[in-house]
């Protein structure tokens, strides 16, 4: 697997000068969580890592090569991106939407095969939306649409997953289900890199964390090293009470 | 004896020249676009694509040789019986072809070049008309008669027509000039300049077209311009009932000389707005009206 | 999503197209029987019949089919490009540019091929103008493109009115004839036809990429589509198709809007099926409409654009109403 790597990377946020250069590698088997308040640049970072935006400084590498030198099709076979906002284009069914995940794998004249269809259905099943497969995406609820988006990347089957707040709109049951799915992907040798606004989800499920501060500073590393209350309080500008549950820390915002 | 031989030789040479001159085609005439149209024999299946052209074909004596006409060909009355082939601007090519014409007559101001060129491509001779003067009308009728085999009749009619025109000209040569406004359309307000046939008719009657100097053939003008120019006579198309039609609006401007002298007249458009022999009748009528106007001024 | 499912509707549309063409060739103001028509097509029959069928009706039918197909495919492409099911090929001011090109050359006194070439040049100029103006200081979005197109189209409309007002009387019939459009205008239907076939062949392999592009540019880029080059290509391609259609038969409205939309309602959104379906469906429709225009008040001939508008406006309103 070609690993995704940020080298001296400074993302481009209009109006914000400076920022600590990021130097990290998203290795196989790792589950990264990106934490930070609104406006810290989480989405911009994700899009930069995916090659959809240019960084201000530094570079993104996929394996040995800079991302900009890799063909888009090849990038799409190795990186999958779950967006935070869905752009509603033309009407399409749930199954059709999941199927476009196979696009990077099919050549120009190739039509989708039975195998592609099976993958898409299996992905929909894993996200508990297969019963909706012939429904138009525009008629689904926010949570259902979110799960379809994740199923699309599952169909795409990339080595590295980039997710932008994947648990948005999801009820508790599905939040846990999605996190478990991602954990399984990591255990199967893939790399997960996701932005989360829920501190506790990150604490529970991620083994590596990247903290993005609004002024551009950042720190990253093993979750155990990052889950320091003082750092988190300064990140969110909010006093926190730490509690333990099920062997992992839980952070509760303090009242007053 | 010598002179007899000489004259027969000369006669023979003349015949030869005539034969050579009229080409292998036989009957040749130059149309309004400057193209020479040659037919090997006189045309007997003619399709005429505008009302004016239809009238001129009848004037040339070839009315019986018409097999089809465009919409609005209504004069002479027999023309109404002719099979129709579509409106001037958009003719039905299929209908025309089905009639198997050997000559198609078009009018430059009414028919589309593209459509008639298509007919020409399919091998049908097309003769374009665009008479702008009285002499043009006469020449057009003579050309049509050449192509249809009625030259003597047409020569005579053309001669009468031109003689009538000359007569009017000399009759009103010394008449007091009157300033005339000819209204072609109401909304928008349109008139004609000096190049137009109607304007020439006005001149023959001893009148002057107040807008004769404008550059465009059918200019659009404003009411203010008309008020400034203040014609002595206003003439429009109509059936003679001056209480209705476009003349009515001018009565709102009593300061106009034409209104004050009640010089508001109508002449049937069929007589003045078609470049045909009926222009003679139209011109005569116009001259009578202008004479009345002179009396009132 | 398989190829076999695609074949049935396409085969049906192809049959409809063929049927429409046969009807068009056999019907006209010169009431020929079907037997006469077939005879003429195979080279026998009277010379008059052969001329009627082979020189008048057949080229006209082919031109109508090609024009309808080109407009429908261009419309479908514009709808993907602008991610708006209500876009049509003229939304970017193209037909106005073509009209100004044609009218100017008529005013200059030229005829024939030069008028067509000027129309084509005008159309492409309009395309470049809109694209350049919409680009502005950065990326162009569908909204910017659309708004710029609307403004440019209005500008062309004003110029056309001016040209008509200033034209000498002699040129007016020709100008009006061009503006109202006539499927029989073009001398030869083959350039348009060949372009239609080429367009279909080129666009079908790009079909899946178009499907992905229609989901949004970021999503498409994330799935490996080269978004910018693809958008450029669609834009230029759609413009070429539309320019050819307009120079072949004048501006005929509604075909490029209504045909892709209706086919999408019935066949779904896979561009690999929709684009060839548009070529066939648009062609069949325009052939039928043209036949109607020729015979409904024969020997008076209606301009095709009038009938497409009469059919298109209520259809469009109905589709709009349903889409709520």
TrEMBL record, chain A:
Keywords: ATP-binding, Nucleotide-binding, Translocase, Transport. The keyword Signal does not apply. The keyword RNA-binding does not apply. Pfam families: ABC_tran. InterPro entries: AAA+_ATPase, ABC_transporter-like_ATP-bd, ABC_transporter-like_CS, P-loop_NTPase. Residues 4-239 form the ABC transporter domain. One of its GO terms (molecular function) is ATP hydrolysis activity. PANTHER family: HEMIN IMPORT ATP-BINDING PROTEIN HMUV. Part of the ABC transporter complex HmuTUV involved in hemin import. Responsible for energy coupling to the transport system. This is Iron complex transport system ATP-binding protein. It comes from Marinobacter segnicrescens.
């Amino acid at each position: 697997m070609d690993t995704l790597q940020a080298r001296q990377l400074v993302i481009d946020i209009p109006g914000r000068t400076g920022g600590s250069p990021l130097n990290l590698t998203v290795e196989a088997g790792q589950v990264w969580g990106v934490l930070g308040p609104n406006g810290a640049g989480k989405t911009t970072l994700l899009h930069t890592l995916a090659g959809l935006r240019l960084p201000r400084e530094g570079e993104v590498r996929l394996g040995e090569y800079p991302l900009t030198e890799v063909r888009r099709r090849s990038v799409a076979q190795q990186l999958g991106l779950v967006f935070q906002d869905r752009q509603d284009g033309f009407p399409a069914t749930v199954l059709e939407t999941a199927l476009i995940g196979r696009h990077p794998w099919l050549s120009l004249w190739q039509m989708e095969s039975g195998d592609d269809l099976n993958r898409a259905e299996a992905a929909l099943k894993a996200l508990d939306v297969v019963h909706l497969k012939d429904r138009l995406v525009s008629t689904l609820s926010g949570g259902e649409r979110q799960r379809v988006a994740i199923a699309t990347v599952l169909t795409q089957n990339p080595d590295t997953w980039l997710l932008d707040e994947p648990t948005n709109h999801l009820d508790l049951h599905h939040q846990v289900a999605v996190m478990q799915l991602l954990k399984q992907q990591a255990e199967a040798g893939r790399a997960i890199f996701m932005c989360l606004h829920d501190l506790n989800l990150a604490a529970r499920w991620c083994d590596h964390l990247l903290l993005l501060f609004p002024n551009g500073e950042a720190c990253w590393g093993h979750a155990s090293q990052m889950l320091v209350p003082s750092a988190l309080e300064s990140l969110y500008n909010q006093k926190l009470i730490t509690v333990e549950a099920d062997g992992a820390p839980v952070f509760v915002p303090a009242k007053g | 004896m010598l002179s007899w031989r000489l004259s027969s030789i000369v006669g023979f040479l003349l015949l030869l020249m005539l034969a050579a001159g009229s080409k292998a085609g036989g009957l040749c005439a130059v149309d309004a676009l400057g193209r020479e149209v040659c037919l090997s024999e006189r045309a007997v299946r003619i399709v005429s694509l505008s009302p004016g052209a239809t009238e001129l074909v009848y004037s040339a004596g070839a009315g019986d040789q018409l097999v089809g006409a465009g919409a609005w060909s209504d004069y002479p009355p027999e023309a109404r019986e002719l099979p129709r082939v579509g409106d001037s601007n958009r003719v039905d090519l299929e209908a025309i072809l089905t009639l198997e014409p050997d000559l198609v007559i078009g009018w430059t101001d009414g028919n589309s070049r593209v459509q008639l060129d298509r007919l020409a491509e399919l091998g049908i001779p097309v003769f374009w008309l665009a008479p702008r003067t009285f002499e043009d009308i006469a020449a057009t009728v003579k050309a049509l008669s050449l192509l249809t085999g009625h030259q003597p009749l047409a020569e005579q009619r053309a001669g009468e027509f031109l003689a009538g025109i000359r007569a009017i000209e000399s009759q009103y040569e010394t008449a007091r000039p009157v300033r005339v406004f000819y209204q072609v359309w109401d909304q928008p307000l349109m008139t004609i300049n000096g190049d137009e046939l109607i304007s020439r008719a006005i001149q023959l009657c001893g009148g002057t077209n107040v807008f004769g100097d404008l550059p465009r053939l059918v200019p659009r003008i404003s009411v203010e311009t008309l008020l400034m120019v203040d014609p002595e006579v206003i003439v429009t198309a109509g059936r003679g009932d001056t209480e209705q039609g476009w003349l009515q609006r001018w009565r709102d401007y009593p300061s106009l000389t034409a209104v004050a002298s009640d010089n508001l007249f109508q002449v049937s458009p069929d007589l003045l707005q078609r470049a045909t022999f009926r222009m003679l009748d139209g011109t005569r009528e116009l001259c009578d009206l202008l004479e009345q106007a002179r009396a009132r001024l | 999503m398989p190829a076999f499912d695609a074949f049935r509707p396409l085969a049906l549309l192809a049959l409809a197209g063929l049927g429409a063409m046969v009807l068009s060739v056999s019907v006209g103001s010169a009431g020929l029987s079907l037997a006469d028509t077939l005879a003429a097509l195979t080279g026998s029959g009277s010379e008059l019949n052969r001329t009627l069928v082979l020189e008048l009706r057949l080229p006209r039918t082919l031109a109508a089919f090609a024009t309808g197909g080109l407009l429908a495919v261009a419309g479908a492409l514009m709808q993907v490009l602008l991610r708006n099911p209500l876009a049509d090929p003229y939304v970017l001011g193209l037909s106005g540019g073509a009209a100004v090109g044609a009218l100017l050359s008529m005013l200059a006194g030229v005829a024939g091929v030069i008028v067509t070439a000027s129309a084509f040049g005008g159309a492409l100029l309009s395309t470049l103008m809109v694209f350049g103006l919409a680009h502005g200081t950065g990326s162009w979005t569908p909204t910017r493109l659309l708004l710029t197109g609307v403004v440019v189209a209005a500008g062309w409309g004003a110029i056309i009115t001016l040209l008509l007002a200033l034209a000498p009387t002699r040129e007016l019939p020709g100008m009006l004839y061009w503006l109202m459009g006539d499927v029989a205008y073009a001398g030869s239907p083959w350039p348009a036809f060949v372009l239609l076939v080429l367009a279909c062949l080129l666009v079908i392999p790009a079909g899946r990429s178009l499907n992905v592009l229609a989901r949004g540019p970021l999503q498409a880029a994330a799935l490996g589509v080269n978004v910018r080059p693809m958008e450029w290509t669609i834009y230029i391609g759609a413009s070429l198709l539309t320019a050819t259609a307009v120079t072949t038969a004048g501006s005929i409205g509604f075909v490029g809007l209504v045909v892709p939309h209706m086919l999408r309602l019935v066949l779904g959104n896979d561009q690999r099926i929709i684009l060839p379906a548009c070529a066939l469906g648009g062609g069949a429709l325009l052939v039928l409409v043209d036949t109607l225009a020729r015979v409904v008040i024969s020997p008076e001939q209606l301009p095709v654009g009038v009938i497409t508008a009469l059919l298109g406006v209520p259809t469009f309103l109905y589709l709009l109403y349903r889409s709520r």
